């Protein structure tokens, strides 16, 4: 059954005229060990937002071909990166992040997963000078853009993505969109507060307040180049996805692993995954099922 409280908040979002000011996170560089640990724990496959990472992995597997070079911008503790790399063992991955504590946690996670197709490096997603022009087949990033300080930095990031992509390269970017009502932000961040802990809840709330608006994304969007889609979540832009069209069906080997991951989720997360997948079904966007 759909969460009626969530639908009620989103209905009020539609008619609200509030436009809260964007408030960048107090710590734009998430490098506090406790913050890193809380963020990593929530996103792991048995974490409270594991279904969201799986939703992104399903879509990324339609963009990544064997032999591709994939760059993950602001990879954090490599939660998304490790999952996608495991699902695509014939592609190579480079994860970059500015925060030493995040990279340290990412290295531990990659080693624990036994992944030989992933490299990690320090780097700024607005200045990829260490990466050659037209050298990447895919650029991905999840839940990182809101760490950028302003719309100028967002445009620089998009410009760098376009520079490093090969002709015909693919993009998958997903992050929060700024909601209009503070009450909705608080509801979303505290929805599973009893499961995710106070530190992650606070960081989640700060992230929603720091998110770019749909108008901000639309203004910077042309910098990425042609052929991409900007897709906000239905009813309210809680999540915004910028992506290339799929170039393949999800391989059977990846589907089997995705099914295992989905079945391992608690029931409420499986329901949340399916609700999000069906909510995103539009003429321009389709997320494959994995059951």
UniProtKB/TrEMBL annotation:
Alphabetized InterPro entries for the sequence: Methyltranfer_dom, Methyltransf_Superfamily, SAM-dependent_MTases_sf, UbiE/COQ5_MeTrFase_CS
Q: What is this protein called?
A: Methyltransferase domain-containing protein
Q: Do you know which Pfam families this protein is assigned to?
A: Methyltransf_31
**Domain Methyltransferase, first and last residues per copy:** 66-177
Kindly give the PANTHER family that the UniProt entry links to this protein: METHYLTRANSFERASE
Superkingdom: Bacteria
Q: Does the keyword Methyltransferase apply?
A: yes
Question: What does the UniProt keyword field contain?
Answer: Methyltransferase, S-adenosyl-L-methionine, Transferase
């Amino acid at each position: 059954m759909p969460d009626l409280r969530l639908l009620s908040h989103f209905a009020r979002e539609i008619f609200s005229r509030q436009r809260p000011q964007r408030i960048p996170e107090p710590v734009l560089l998430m490098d506090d060990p406790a913050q890193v640990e809380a963020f990593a724990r929530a996103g792991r496959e048995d974490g409270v937002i594991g279904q969201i990472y799986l939703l992104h992995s399903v879509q990324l597997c339609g963009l990544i071909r064997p032999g591709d070079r994939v760059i993950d911008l602001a990879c954090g503790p490599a939660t998304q990166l490790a999952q996608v790399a495991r699902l695509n063992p014939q592609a190579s991955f480079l994860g970059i992040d500015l925060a030493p504590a995040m990279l340290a946690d990412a290295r531990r996670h990659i080693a624990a997963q036994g992944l030989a197709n992933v490299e990690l490096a320090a780097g700024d997603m607005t200045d990829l000078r260490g990466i050659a022009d037209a050298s990447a087949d895919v650029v991905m990033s999840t839940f990182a853009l809101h760490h950028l300080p302003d719309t100028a930095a967002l445009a620089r990031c998009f410009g760098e993505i376009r520079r490093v992509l090969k002709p015909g390269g693919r993009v998958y970017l997903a992050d929060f969109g700024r909601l209009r009502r503070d009450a909705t932000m608080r509801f979303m961040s505290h929805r599973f507060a009893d499961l995710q802990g106070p530190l992650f809840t606070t960081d989640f709330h700060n992230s929603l307040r720091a998110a770019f608006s749909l108008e901000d994304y639309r203004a910077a969007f042309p910098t990425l180049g042609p052929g991409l889609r900007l897709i906000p979540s239905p009813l309210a832009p809680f999540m915004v996805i910028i992506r290339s069209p799929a170039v393949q069906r999800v391989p059977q080997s990846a589907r089997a692993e995705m099914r295992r991951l989905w079945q391992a989720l608690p029931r409420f997360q499986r329901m949340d995954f399916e609700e999000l997948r069906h909510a995103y079904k539009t003429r321009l966007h389709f997320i494959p099922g994995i059951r």
